[in-house]
Amino acid sequence: MCNACDERFMGLMRTIQGRRDILRGFGGAFLATAVPTVGGTVAHSSERRQADTIILAGRIYTMDPRDTVVDAVAIRDGRILRSGKRSDILGLKGRGTRIVELGDYTVLPGFVDPHMHSNFAGLRPWLDVGPFSTPMMDDARTKIRDASARAGPGAWVQAKMLDPSIMPGRPFSREDLDQLSPNVPVFILESNGHNAYANSRAIELAGLTKDTPDPPQGRFERGPDGSLTGRLEEPPAFQPFIQVMTAPSASELVEYLRADLDDAAAKGCTALHDCGIGGLFAEADISLIEAALRDNPPVRYAGMLVSTHYEKWKQMGLRPGLHSPNFSFSGIKAWSDGSNQGLTGYQRTPYLNSSNRGALNYSPEEIEALVRTLHADGWPIGIHANGDAAIDVVLDAFERGTGGEGGHKHRHRIEHCSILHDDQIRRMKALGISPSFLIGHVHYWGRAFRDRLMGPERANRLDPCRSALAGGLRISLHSDYNVTPIDPLRCIENAVLRDMNEGGGILNPAECISPLEAIRAVTIDAAWQCHLDDTCGSLEVGKSADLVVLERDPTTVSPDTLRSIRVHSTWLGGQELTR
Known about the structure:
By secondary structure, the chain is of the alpha/beta class. It has 20 helices and 23 strands.
């Protein structure tokens, strides 16, 4: 990037950190470097038939409509030239062809994570108080207290990944945090991204009082006397704190996001789909992503723009499709409810031992109006819905807002779609709507859902992959990073086994799917949902040579070892990524 452009971007980010308006239409200032594509000088016909690279392996799963398995694939100009038998493909060898012999290794199309968040990149330096590093709530208390004692003048204690649903012990309260940190402001984000906690010092700096009204689509939890308890529900309630707390610099944000992209590529991902672009810094989120993609990007990137800034996106002239090389807009994202494990997912019946059914972030009429507008404007729509009642409301909105038509064309989605019933699957099939499952819910929170939050009957409907496939739906599996780590092999294992991390056992084995079905859900069907299937997701002639090389075959290993398969290498556009 030129110095002038770099200064312009840095200036923009400083402006955002100063909480002033940002320059309109700046999102396209940075263009990522494209991976190799077909084109260039005209070659003789004999040269066009020759491959740049030929890959030979024990098994190459093309994930084409016939699930063809081959042992050789030819690549030219970054795209699949041909696949088939080794003897046939070697006939495409020319004088300069590189032969890559992978022995008994297995090749798949590069993995696609169809739902992650770039906005979490800025949390890299935050204190981890999540269940995988901090098993008990008392352990989290110790970390918060120690961090407060170390904090210098003007510093905040910023913590992430807290999860009271699977961390035994007493939940945090405002008074509790005040005792741990009476003078240093504390802000703690739950792993689900929908709930947070603040102490009195943080509430004071944020300018909140008992008389402060709840923001649209957000809530400040209050006690019987109306006083703030320190618990915050939904991102709009976090904004007063984000406005005043310490934040990474522009260059640090780019560095953190690029590190996330590199980590994803090391896990075999060749495409990421961001379900919330613009949720943090509006159009500057676009500039951040493009800056992270600037030099030799390790993945393709696509995503949905947040619905809360739809008028801004219209003013900028943004449309579905390619925005800049390797970066496209696939739709608009909205949130109908919150988190089931955070007790804010909207349910048909109350959570166990409670009168609480969770809550909608918008009225049903508002959700329907949004669907009507976006669908009429030609945008694919993804709506977050965790609770079964929220899914009901979203399906009503799609049915009325689209006239019951067009879902198949636009590939409208329900994100997470967690507690899903058979009647809803039938409605989704009729409307042309597909689900993307946060399959880590089953593994990490399955026992909590079954024993403490919902009971066995409803927990058995959690991420029902087999029922969805039997009902004719195309499904995908995602991480919702950083709710769970980006790791497609772990997602495959979770869908195949449905094992519960806490205490062991299987959550509704009738919903288990085969390894090949799970692979499809992180390759071609994920790419299809993200409108990337014309480029990647399968190893078909003409598509980009995006692939992952595994040291073992995921269709033949013991299912409980799927996540431990080593990624030998990841290839993007016919180029092996350096590690």
